[in-house]
Amino acid sequence: MKRVASIPTIALEVWAKEYDPYGDGNWFALPKEVQSKILKLKLNSNEFKYFRTAEGRI
Question: pLDDT tens-digit profile of 1-57?
């Protein structure tokens, strides 16, 4: 396993609220499958390239 990103917890909270606008924004309460899906989508986009610590795609 290789570290590919350093993501601030506030970003995780925002992403959790985007996924479930009626939720409390708790990233860790989301199912692991949903977390993985969101991370792949966000980290492979150019918008969040500055969170990446390694090259390549997830």
Answer: 788 899 999 999 999 999 999 989 999 999 999 999 999 999 999 999 899 998 877
- Sort 47 into a burial class: Cβ within 10 Å, 0-12 / 13-18 / 19+: exposed
- Report yes or no on whether pTM surpasses 0.70: yes
Interaxial angle between packed helices 32-43 and 9-19, expressed in degrees from 0 to 180 and rounded to the nearest 10: 110
Domains in the chain: boundaries? 9-51
Phi-psi region of 10 (alpha: psi -120 to 50; beta: other; left: phi over 0): alpha
DSSP three-state, residue 5: strand
